[in-house]
Design a protein that fits this description.
The model has no long low-confidence stretch (mean pLDDT 85). Helix 1 crosses helix 5, helix 1 crosses helix 6 and helix 2 packs antiparallel against helix 4. By secondary structure, the protein is mainly α. The protein has one domain.
Length: 119
């Protein structure tokens, strides 16, 4: 794994827990590649938010607390592109939509600091 994936693994794990809740009674298992896909989606979303706010980390962090229709659409596109099939995309999307608003400020700080370091 790369340094980015190592730093964002705890966030990926939180999203995975939400993904399992989203899947409900279905036995949904996740492989390491899917976890890496989730981390890449988080990273891409943070990059997009940073570019929208002209690299103002404080504004980007605040905008990540609420997911409007545009952010949800972008997350869906990233999930669909990174998933193996539509069922995985649906579960990954649901996990991301539920997990991102629940991230703490330190989680958001970690995410956006990682993006800023790698710009």
């Amino acid at each position: 794994m790369t340094q980015i994936e190592d730093k964002l693994m705890p966030l990926g794990s939180k999203v995975f827990q939400e993904t399992q809740k989203w899947a409900g009674k279905e036995r949904y298992a996740i492989d390491p590649l899917t976890l890496i896909t989730i981390i890449q989606i988080l990273y891409k979303l943070a990059q997009a938010l940073m570019s929208w706010w002209s690299n103002r980390q404080d504004k980007a962090m605040n905008s990540s607390k609420k997911l409007n229709w545009m952010k949800r659409f972008i997350i869906w596109r990233y999930a669909k592109a990174g998933a193996k099939n539509s069922k995985d995309a649906k579960y990954i999307y649901g996990g991301l939509i539920n997990a991102i608003p629940k991230f703490t400020d330190s989680d958001r700080q970690t995410l956006f600091n990682t993006v800023k370091e790698n710009l």
